[in-house]
Fold Acetyltransferase.
Amino acid sequence: MTDDDAAPADAEGRRHDRIQHHPTPGPRNSLQYWTDAKPVWRVMLNYVFVLVARIAPSLKLRNWALRRIGVTVGTGVSWGLEATPDVFWPELITIEDDAIIGYDSVILCHEFLQDEYRTGEVVVGERAMIGAKATILPGVRIGTGAQVAANSLVTRDVPAGETVAGVPARPMSGGEADGE
């Protein structure tokens, strides 16, 4: 049984229900054909703005750079240094008002696999917090006020107000979430 098999039966908790599947057009793995999926010039331009978003000293400048590549960025978003949005499909990322994206975290909207590649929108809810070095996979929704602990791998939705941690990320019990 995989982690996603253990997810709730409803669509709210299953990122795979929201992911689009794109078959590999030839005999090699899907990454070999990335130029069929996205124009080279677009990925290169995205990469330049991703670099600005990663290293700019100003939150305002980081958010500006993210918006230039199609990320939906709410008011008061804090994008941490070295945090990386998806370079291929940044337009699939939505970060709602006052969310915090921690230092060196990664938000992915694609998965290149052997026989296909997958894409899925990622939504980080209002006042949600993504800890340092966390990785969010395609199709995941982080609810309003939810918290993702540092170094976590988020493979499924995080309900509003919940705190998750680990690889893969799981809900924290009351005592653990409070640092006890």
Summary: DSSP finds four helices and 17 strands in the chain. Residues 27-171 form a domain with the UDP N-Acetylglucosamine Acyltransferase; domain 1 fold (CATH 2.160.10.10). The two ends are 31 Å apart (CA to CA).
